[in-house]
Design a protein that fits this description.
The protein has 80 residues and is mainly α. It contains 5 helices and 2 strands; from the N terminus they run E-H-H-H-H-E-H.
Amino acid sequence: MKMKVGLRTPSLKRSIKARTTGKLKRQVKSAVNPLYGKKGMGFIKNPEKSVKNAIYHRTTFGVGDLVKTSTGSHKKKNSN
């Protein structure tokens, strides 16, 4: 499989789904499975998929990333 590089194709449906998956659902999963949501669990559960996802997220960027960098570049750093 060829790995994607560059801009990720935006999906409105997936974006809405990610934002509306409820806090309650995550709390229930966390109560049932004490390892749910812990750092590194993806690698233990499925190492091949985890490595591919890590590479994918380092080599691609989304529309949200573009917005963050364009608005963040205008802010000056405080030297305190």
